[in-house]
Each structure stands twice: as C-alpha cells, then as structure tokens.
Amino acid sequence: MRFLLALGCISLLLSHAYAQEEDEPKGLVVPVEYGNVVLYQMAVPDAIALKGAGDKSVIEALSGTVQRDLGIAGHYHLLDANAFATESNSEGMKPRFNHWFNVGAQGLVKIGYEPSGDGLKVDMRLFSVDQAARVTLPAPYDKAQVIAKDPAKLRAYAHGFVNEIMRFYTKTPGFFGSHIVFVKRTDQGKEIYQISADGQEESALTKSGGVNMLPSVGGGRVFFTSFRNGGPHLFTLQGGTVKPFSSFEGLNTGAVLSPNGKYVAATLSKDGNPEIYLLDPQTGATVKRLTNAWGIDASPTWSPDSQQIAFVSDRHGSPQIWVMDVQGGNQRRLTFQGDYNQTPAWSPKGDKIAFTARDERNVFDIFTVNVADGHIDRLTQNQGNNEEPTWSPDGNYIAFTSTRNGASKLYVTTADGRVQTEISHGKGEYLTPYWGR
Length: 437
Description:
about 425 residues, alpha+beta, Neuraminidase, Rossmann fold, seven-stranded mixed sheet
C-alpha cells in the first residue's frame, strides 16, 4: 500500500480501487505450507498474593501479560487454567511436580507478589516439569525484585521475563516491550498511533484531525507524511513535538532512516516522476537521487547493514520488488512472479524481504522472498486482504494488517505464518504498521 499511496497522494484514489482496474490480474500463486510443529505445553496460573489480599489489577499486569505474550509467541500451548487453578494457589511458589505432570505441563510459570514499601516484591519463576527443577534465568529474574506498583512498570517487568523464557527455549530473546506505530482511520481522519507488541497501551501520537500516514521509526523519531501544511510533506515526531522534515514540491513520502543513522531514504516527485532519494537525517536536504526510471519508484526499505535498499518499481509494467546498492548502483529486479508486488520490508536478519502481493483471486496476501535466490513463500491465504508486513526487531515475527474479520486490524504472525494473532482491540481501521527497533 505504500507504493499505491505514492499514486494515491496525487490522484486521491484508494489503493484497492487502483489495483482492481485491470480486468485480468495475473496474481502470485504460491500455496501456504505449514510443517508439523509440536508446541511446548505451558502452564501459567494467575499470580499469587503471598501476603494480604489479591489485587486483580496486579494479577492482570503480571500473569495476564505473561499469558498474552506466550500466546502470541507461537511456540507454546497454554493449558486451560481450570485444570490447575486450585492446586496452584494451595502450593504457593513450590510446585508439586507430579500434579503439573498429570495435567500435561512441560513448563510451568509461577508468579508471586507481596507489598514492599511503596512497591511490590515480585517473584517470577520458570520450572521444567519434566526435570522437576527450577530453570535459572538471568538477572533480574534469578530472584525476587521490588517493582513500583504501577501497571506499566509491572507489565514491562513481565515482558522482560517472557523475553528470557523465549531465550531459554529458542536461544533468541523475545520482542516484547517493543512498540509498533501505525495509522488509525477514524471519522475524524487518519492519525499516527502507537501500540505495544502484545496489543496493549494503544495511544495516539498525532491529533491534527487531518491526514497523517506512512509512519516509520528510527533514531528515537517517528517519520511520517502529513497534509497538515498542504502536503504531502514529511514530518518528524519526537517527545510529542512535530517538526517539518521535507516539503519539496510534489510528493514527499515513505521516509525511512537507515539502521546506521546516516541517511533517510524517501520518495520524492520534485523532479517529475516519484523516485527514491537519500536525504540528510537532520536537515531533510537531498543528498542523492538514487533512481531515474520512467515509472514510479517508491516504498524504500533498508537492509540491516545499511548497504542496500529494496523498493517498488513499475518500470517494467507492473509493481515489482527491486534491490539496489545504497548509492543507487546495481539495480536489480527481485520478484518475477505475480503482477502486483509492493510494500517490501527487509528482515533484520538480512535474508528475506516480506511484501504484499495480489494473488490469482485478486486478493492481497503476505509473502516473503529470499534475497539470495528469489525463492518465494506465502504466509497468508483465504483470510481477507492481508497487507503491509513489518518485521519484529529479532526478525522472527511479522506484524501486518488484515480484513479477515471485517475492518482492517493489526495482527502478528510467526515468520513462517503458522501462528497468527490479532493484537488490535480498538475501534477504527488499523493501517500501515511499522515495528520499531
């Protein structure tokens, strides 16, 4: 949709209407294939008040966060709490492993808390039921810690605990605690929002009442396109302050900061066609024009080493994914299947680019292409329109939008497409997510 919006900013046409003008789409035909995956059986009972009465808000912030995170992670099957709630409370923080073995648990999380001054003393423990032993996690989760009695701080602590659980089982720490910026379309317009990776703590970052779109995150700033000054112009947002960034004549959109912070890649039409430019990250001044084709070049995305840029170009007749060096050299076409491929997002691992493609049924779905050999895998199918992929900081998950249940909402999937979870819970349409790193 970022490529489509390059036209949309000029023609004010919706992307799907533009895409469906062709009578006989020749979409990408790649089936979804899932391997046989055995999920680790986890028991996560509610947090226990070790002293005094229980507090529902504390229980939600601690065990509720852990339960949500592990469900989104996709490697674990959470056992039904009705099978062990009574036993968990009676045993406290010292498991009777034979009980947990009998209910089918392989792993067990125990959380206890008690008042400590103005805060709470929180004890989070992971146990291996198979080995009847506690798993020693790195500090601060190797022993109880005093945390402020603030739901946000308790949730942050719980996110860190889940990240260490994921590191223990997968050798890679989790992504929880990170945030996704996106556009929400409401009756008042399109505003930039932020949401935590588990779908909580949603908040508006802009409140201009107009059209704000295509956010990205880099260097502690949010880059976005807005019509607030007549645009489409580029702006930055940091610490609640919005500043103009690029306002050349014509289109200014799709700004993305390179991982090394040296350049901003963006789409400008100041010299005619929409083309990819490098901009100075502090001033917004043009450093170099990278593309010079008759068609539209848009939607830049950086390789993790900041040495290459993937983008969308229709220079050969239909939108396809292309790759070039950081200075614009060695431009090569990466996708050859399908006639409408767009919104590339380069994995932090460097090996794959996720993108949106229109399939043989004239529906949009999420695919990945291997940068080295061009091999394509499909992640979504037969679930409405699925668009705008963006990678998690660890490169193991992808956030995207989907209309599978009606209006466009925000989902997170494992990188193989096996486990897909909706994380948006508010009203309005969720559009163009970008996962901060």
